[in-house]
Write a structure and sequence with these properties.
The complex is a heterodimer of chains A (276) and B (92). With 276 residues, chain A is of the alpha/beta class. Chain A has an eight-stranded mixed beta sheet with strand order 2-1-3-4-6-5-8-7, with helices on both faces. Chain B has a single domain, classed as Alpha-Beta Plaits. Chain B is an alpha+beta fold and 92 residues long. The longest helix of chain B is centred in the N-terminal third of the chain and has 5 residues. Chain B is globular and about 35 Å long. Classes of the chains: A alpha/beta (276), B alpha+beta (92). Chains A and B meet through helix 1, helix 6 and helix 8 of A and strand 1, helix 1, helix 2 and strand 4 of B. The structure holds thiamine diphosphate, iron/sulfur cluster (3 copies) and magnesium ion. Magnesium ion (MG) binds next to helix 3 of chain A.
């Protein structure tokens, strides 16, 4: 029996003994990266509201984290989170959900929250597939990949999420893989501290659905793939489109200061209240 | 040869582990290759790892940070043990 307790255990509900994920799933590594960011920033879980949608990734905060967690309908966590943030602007509102949830059924919420630059931190777990429902093609599935809904390989092109959300106007955008957990924690810390919309795209292994569809295999093979195919943004200038095709570009895409929605709204309210 | 002293105390919380067969991330990220499957099954039917020779541990904490099931605790015994796992942008 173990004598030590995990240093992040204090942030989780004591009656939840295990994570909900399959062996080797990267979701748990992302979950740790989030809690480590909160721990290193010395923030109080009571000052957070975690909002998630539907999918394996959406199980990260709920029911595991010992905080206010809102497990919403598929695709809508950002809509709920927007309401929470406008009602409780002093809370840190963090959305944690999957690529299908946030870029397919919930894609417009994501784009428009970035455009509005509302102060949310979104940790988007991108495993390239609808994992929980059995491995269907998602907007993030690489073109040509055979899945149960694309038996001849998907003919569609793939969303490149981080640049898309950068273009939509977010204040902070970063992408890392589960092979980069320390970098991921650092970017989550910056995202939490950023007054504005922050996206951290966490590329994560789903050995069960994606691993099978891609023949990449188990967790370690997928992590090896992330290790071998990740390229820092700074190194991409010298690379052409063909070279970049199969690469995962990692790093911080945007880190800027700009007008934020809840702050602007408070100013307008104060002005209207002051006027006779 | 004189035994080195380990740079971290590494504890495996066997009951949380989902097994070296399908996971094994700890073995993959340990720069000293200290993890091997133990023979004893845990309560949920998985074979967790055990540490071969703790004295070699570099204290990098990769195993704890990467384990998806919060099943490893690596308490640093000395400050300044090197981190690894491609942390080249640490100064960012
Ligand atoms: C309105 C609605 N449509 C479809 C579903 C079925 N469904 C549940 S999870 C999911 C996909 C989840 O994919 P993703 O967000 O990538 O999460 P993952 O499981 O990959 O982490 C779908 C289509 C649903 N629950 N509700
Ligand atoms: S199906 Fe994939 S994403 Fe879902 S818990 Fe299992 S390994 Fe993780
Ligand atoms: S990384 Fe964690 S869950 Fe995976 S085999 Fe090692 S101890 Fe078990
Ligand atoms: S702390 Fe580093 S060297 Fe020590 S067991 Fe863990 S991964 Fe291996
Ligand atoms: Mg997914």
């Amino acid at each position: 029996m173990s004598t030590s307790t995990h240093p992040l255990k204090k942030y989780t509900r004591s009656h939840i003994m295990r994570t909900t994920t399959c062996p080797g799933c990267g979701i748990g590594t992302v979950s740790q990266a989030i809690l480590r960011a909160i721990d290193e920033l010395e923030l109080d879980m009571d000052d957070f509201v975690f909002v998630s949608g539907i999918g394996c990734s959406a199980w990260i905060p709920s029911p595991f984290y010992n905080a206010d967690t809102l497990h919403t309908t598929h695709g809508r966590p950002i809509a709920y989170a927007t309401g929470v943030k406008l009602g409780l602007p002093d809370k840190h509102v963090m959305v944690v959900s999957g690529d299908g949830d946030l870029t397919a059924i919930g894609g417009n919420h994501l784009i428009h929250a970035a455009r509005r630059n509302i102060d949310l931190t979104v940790v988007l777990v991108n495993n390239g597939i609808y994992a929980m429902t059995g491995g269907q093609t998602a907007p993030t599935t690489p073109r040509g990949l055979t899945t149960i809904t694309s038996p001849h390989g998907t003919l569609e092109h793939t969303f490149d999420i981080s640049p898309m959300i950068a273009a939509a106007g977010a204040s902070f955008v970063a992408r890392w893989t589960t092979y980069h957990p320390r970098q991921m924690t650092r970017s989550i810390k910056k995202g939490i501290q950023k007054k504005g919309f922050a996206l951290i795209e966490a590329v994560s292994q789903c050995p069960v659905q994606y691993g099978r569809a891609s023949n990449l295999g188990d967790a370690v093979s997928m992590l090896t793939y992330f290790k071998d195919n990740s390229v820092r943004i700074s190194k991409t200038q010298k690379m052409d489109a063909a070279e970049l095709q199969s690469k995962i570009v990692v790093g911080e895409f945007v880190d800027t200061e700009k007008a934020e929605l809840t702050t602007e709204l408070a100013q307008v309210k104060n002005k209207l209240r002051a006027s006779p | 040869m004189q035994k080195k002293s380990p740079k971290a105390k590494v504890t495996i919380i066997a009951e949380s582990c989902k097994g070296m067969d399908d996971c094994g991330i700890c073995r993959f990220v340990c720069p000293k290759d200290l993890f091997e499957a133990c023979k004893e099954m845990n309560a949920t039917g998985y074979y967790p790892p055990e540490i071969k020779d703790e004295s070699d541990c570099s204290g990098c904490q990769n195993c704890m940070i990467c384990c998806p099931d919060f099943a490893i605790v690596a308490e640093k015994k000395t400050d300044g043990a090197p981190n690894s796992l491609e942390d080249e942008d640490a100064e960012q």
